Amino acid sequence: MARTKQRWLPAVLITLVVAMAVMFGSVQAGATVSLPPKTADEVLAMIARTEVRALSGTVEQTAGLGLPEVPAGPGTAPGAASAMELLTGSHTARVYLDGPFKARLQVLDRMAERDVVINGGDAWFYNSADNSATHLTMPAPSRAEVPSFAGPRESLPPTPSPDTSARDVPTPEAMASRFLAAIDDSTGVSVGEASSVAGRSAYRVSLHPRSTETLVDSVTIDVDAETGLPLGIEVRAKGQTEPAYSLAFTELDLSTPDAMLFDFTPPPGATVSEKALPAKPVPTMTAPEGSPTTSHPRPTVTGQGWDSIIALPAGSAPSGLTSNPQFAQTLEPVAGGRALRTSLVSILILDDGRIYAGMVPLERLQAAAAAL
Length: 372
Known about the structure:
single chain; six-stranded antiparallel β-sheet; 13-stranded mixed β-sheet; globular; alpha+beta
């Protein structure tokens, strides 16, 4: 259970404040269709066994988290500000995937286009509004870290390397996996009426938190009846009539995209920034916690299931997160720091550098911080 919580909650935090976690979105599913009945366990098993590894399509997002409009200005690099802007209103994007380390994402703005291209150890972030590009070089994964696609999805590691991979792209499948990994005794699971998403028949499975403390009312996932691929996800907050967040395909092609789509060359005159990610530190099994070899303190998780709270020690926040002026517009002053309130997630940033986050009211985070 502890492992499940630590995999789930950091993903929720990243979804809110790190660039690629929320680049895309969704629409409501279409009319109901007729499908052979299946139990919740059978639908979840379909998702686990899906063999879809390549696709292209259009996704649409609608976010109603209660955040203010924060437009990304010229020169805005992929990061917290861009993510916050994409978490308000509706957005459309094209997505191309081929295996675990090839992806292309095109966010279609009204007057410009933003692209994320991942190809092995290279990642490009491009903004046509100011013709700027960032090239991120990542360390190559070892043979043991590269997932094999010969077996079922259950055999794959939950977090493949390198750190930025195609499986981290915010497709309905990637977003749904964050919640499916958290299913335990605190979650009720049911199957509703079948629907149609992107012209494909889909089973609809719903997750219902049994907790009275979480902000989440329900999570609904539309699952392709033929392949088991999640086609759409809808998250509802308590006390709201409209979904707080939805993400779904409007068009989908399950054939392998053209390999040239994953080769990116900056346009003439583009301003290019080069960055490199350091290699992951090699974990040691003999060094005790807190020894000099443990240079990066790990986050801690308190509570269980939907009520879980993640605490990040001072100095572990993403670089530039709290200093970005656009992100700062979304924060409100509170005792001892600043806070971000949304209909689904709360984040508390203390003056001493600690950060608390969870799908719970802000008061729960403040109580957790005061207890330490």
